[in-house]
Amino acid sequence: MTLKTLITGAILAGAVLSSQPAAAYELTTTGRTLASPQLTMDVLREIARYSKATGGCSFLFSADMRIMPRGLAPARPTIAADRRGGHFEQWTVNACGAKQRFQIAMWPSPRGGSDYAITPLTGRMPLYVR
């Protein structure tokens, strides 16, 4: 495990915990993302809100992040991130004992930093589903 991975995991766990009621659990992240730690926290916070609205629970226990290849056409793109100088990623989260996949579009913001769009790719699935 690299130092960057440890730092990112600590930041993510802090961000998710700060947006949740007091709880003692650790958010585990795997895979790779091009998102900054701040952007990662923002995206995970939005996913937690979505999970709360659709599944009644906002606790994220793990997130697996994968960068999609540049030439791959994403599923149901909400934003043409690649045409805006950005890219797509697929994140799989374990929220409250259920797995769910999301497509994350990220692109440079004209105001500085990055903008993003989150597209749910699946509904809530059992954890054993690949």
Strand content: 25-35%
Mean pLDDT rating: 78
The global form is: globular
Low-confidence stretches: 16-24
Cα-to-Cα separation, first versus last residue? 24 Å
What topology, given as strand order, has the largest sheet?
A: 1-2-3-4-5
> Which class of secondary structure composition applies to the elements?
alpha+beta
Find the count of extended strands (DSSP E, 2+ residues): 5
Described by strand count, sense and barrel closure, the largest sheet is: 5 strands, mixed
Helix content estimate: 25-40%
Q: What is the CA-atom radius of gyration, in angstroms?
A: 14 Å
One letter per element, helices H and strands E, the order comes to HEHEEEE
The number of helical segments is 2
Describe this structure in words.
The chain is an alpha+beta fold and 130 residues long. The chain has a 5-stranded mixed β-sheet with strand order 1-2-3-4-5, with helices on one face. Strand 3 and strand 4 form a beta hairpin.
Brief digest:
This protein is of the alpha+beta class.
Reconstruct the topology from this structure:
Elements: H1 3-18, E1 28-31, H2 37-55, E2 60-67, E3 87-95, E4 98-108, E5 114-120
Parallel strand pairs: 1-2
Antiparallel strand pairs: 2-3, 3-4, 4-5
Helix pairs in contact: 1-2
Give the tags.
five-stranded mixed beta sheet; 5 strands; globular
